[in-house]
From TrEMBL, chains A, B:
Signal peptide: none annotated. SMART domains: HTH_ASNC. SUPFAM superfamilies: Dimeric alpha+beta barrel, Winged helix' DNA-binding domain. It comes from the Bacteria. PANTHER family: LEUCINE-RESPONSIVE REGULATORY PROTEIN (PTHR30154). The keyword Cell membrane does not apply. It holds the Pfam family AsnC_trans_reg. CDD domains: HTH_ARSR. Residues 1-62 form the HTH asnC-type domain. It comes from Brevibacillus porteri. Keywords: DNA-binding, Transcription, Transcription regulation. InterPro entries: ArsR-like_HTH, AsnC-type_HTH_dom, Dimeric_a/b-barrel, Tscrpt_reg_AsnC-like, Tscrpt_reg_AsnC/Lrp_C, Tscrpt_reg_HTH_AsnC-type_CS, WH-like_DNA-bd_sf, WH_DNA-bd_sf. This is AsnC family transcriptional regulator.
Length: 144, 144
DNA sequence: GTTGAAAAAACAGAGGA
DNA sequence: TCCTCTGTTTTTTCAAC
């Protein structure tokens, strides 16, 4: 994991579909060398996935919320969450609440309806997202 | 946005670097047709980015936390957050707190140090992530 | 949306610093 | 060990239909 790997990861973080040939031009290194470095980063588990980011709005999801949840039936609750299409992320957390989940719904009304279905498992505190100053900032230290 | 587009998005969500040729085989459609559909999804803004997901652990970030924050100097606070490498996501939210941020640090101690640097802007409540039952579930309705 | 040819990129091997 | 060079295979692009 040297400077070159950092540069590779910085580019890939925002442009996963970039051709290796173009990436190799950007960092002034031969194609096979870059391919090998990327392969190793995958093998080492540094790269965990290549994902396509979709617009919630364009898919009809106009409301984003984080929901704090308190439950005493963790196993059942997790099974419920896995099957709930509204929930994209689920975290077990410290503090007064057990869980934090990121929820996408069509409207605030469908969020309310979703919360109602949750309430057999425990108690919720929804935090509605008003705006996103930024999201998905790169983890890689930009050494420039 | 028909069934085929949904299928394309479902595959791309988890495999952004898949060759179009392989994707076209999976959905039994010619390559140029799939290329054109993907191009339109990008143009329409349904696809917003192709990202590479990295392992925080492998990059030395062993602590994940969500931090609720209350500030009265929003503009300064956002400028601070943009420059803070620990913060990967920042959301403005409803409720008692103004902001929710996702923070990655090396240890819980470096989280504490980070929170100290925040406290000139307001008051924080950190929620440490103990585990992630799941993350990044697909938005696309899987119609199978 | 499909087919088919040309261009480009990815891959796999041999050799060198 | 890591990189470069080169030939082969695969993928992408672009034409015509």
């Amino acid at each position: 994991m040297d400077q070159i790997d950092h540069k590779i990861l910085t580019v890939l973080h925002d442009h996963a579909r970039i051709p290796i040939s173009e990436l190799s031009r950007m960092i002034a290194m031969s194609q096979p060398a870059v391919t090998e470095r990327v392969r190793k980063l995958e093998e080492q588990g540094v790269i965990t996935a290549y994902r396509t980011e979709l617009s919630p709005q364009k898919l009809g999801k106009h409301t984003t919320a984080f929901v704090l949840f308190k439950t005493s039936v963790c196993k059942d609750f997790i099974a419920f969450c896995e099957r709930a299409p509204e929930i994209v992320d689920l975290y077990r957390i410290s503090g007064e609440y057990n869980y934090l989940m990121k929820v996408l719904t069509e409207t605030t009304e469908s969020l309310a309806a979703f919360l109602d279905t949750c309430h057999v498992y425990g108690f919720s505190t929804p935090l509605i997202v008003l705006s996103k100053p930024f999201e998905n900032k790169s983890l890689v230290p930009s050494t420039e």
